[in-house]
Amino acid sequence: MLLVERLGSDTKVYTSVEQVGPILARLNGNVALQRGEPIALRFDPEHMHFFAQSGRALA
User: Fold this and answer.
1) How far is CA 40 from CA 25, 29, 44, 52, in A?
2) How far is residue 45's CA from residue 3's CA, in Å, rounded to a whole number?
3) CB–CB of 10/26 below 8 Å?
4) Which tens digits make up the pLDDT trace of 18-41?
5) Residue 10 — very low, low, confident or very high, per pLDDT cuts 50/70/90?
6) pTM
7) Which residue ranges run through the membrane (predicted)?
8) What is the mean pLDDT of the chain?
9) Structural domain boundaries of the chain?
10) What DSSP line would sit under the chain, residue for residue?
């Protein structure tokens, strides 16, 4: 985990995965995480958004 940003009702986790690239995960605000701590993420495809390197949203 590169960065943990607590925003009240949400916690944003910024990380990077080898062969995938950067990932931003929005979690429940009550998650107790520390920078550098290993985490496991599970993704619901219905809630995923993909972006090109240019920042343009992909369909």
Assistant:
1) 11, 17, 14, 24
2) 23
3) yes
4) 888 889 999 988 888 888 888 888
5) very high
6) 0.69
7) none
8) 88
9) 1-31
10) --EEEE-SSEEEEEEEETTTEEEEEEEETT----TT--------GGG--EE-TTSPEE-
